[in-house]
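Input/output pair, single chain:
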Amino acid sequence: MSLTWTMATMNKLEAAYRATTYRVFLPAGPLDLRLDQADERLRAWLAAAGCRCFALVTACNPGAQRLDAASNAERQARLECELLEGNYEPFAAEHIADDGAWPVEESCFVPDLEAEDACALAADFGQNAVVCGGEDGVPRLVWVSQSG
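Output:
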C-alpha cells in the first residue's frame, strides 16, 4: 500500500471492505462470505476439493477509484486470462457493498492461490487489498503492498 496513505484513509477503506459481502459462485451454489467469519460450507468445499487456501481477487476499480463498466470488464477479463494461464481454476465471485453505495464488483474466487501470489497479482491490477483464507474457511483481509 502507498506510503502516502493516512491512517484515516486506511480505516475508511477497511471499514468499506468489512461492510461487504463476498459472494462466491461454486458448483454446489453461491456462498456469501464475510471477513473474519468462518463459513462451514466453504471449509467443507475446500476439504473435498483438496485445497489448502483460497483468494478473492478483482481487477475492478483500482485503488478504490470507480471506473466505467466497460473498463472494469476489460480489466477483469485480463485478470481471468492471467489466472487461467497460471493454471488456476477461478470461479466467478462478486463483492457487494452492504449499503449499495458502491457498484457490485466482479471478482474471482481462486482455490489454491497463496496470499503472497494473490497480492502480487492484485498489485499488478492496482488493488489495495485481497481476501485470502486457508483450510479453515475464514476469509481475511490482506493489504497489498504497492510501495515496492
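The chain has four helices and seven strands. The radius of gyration is 14 Å.
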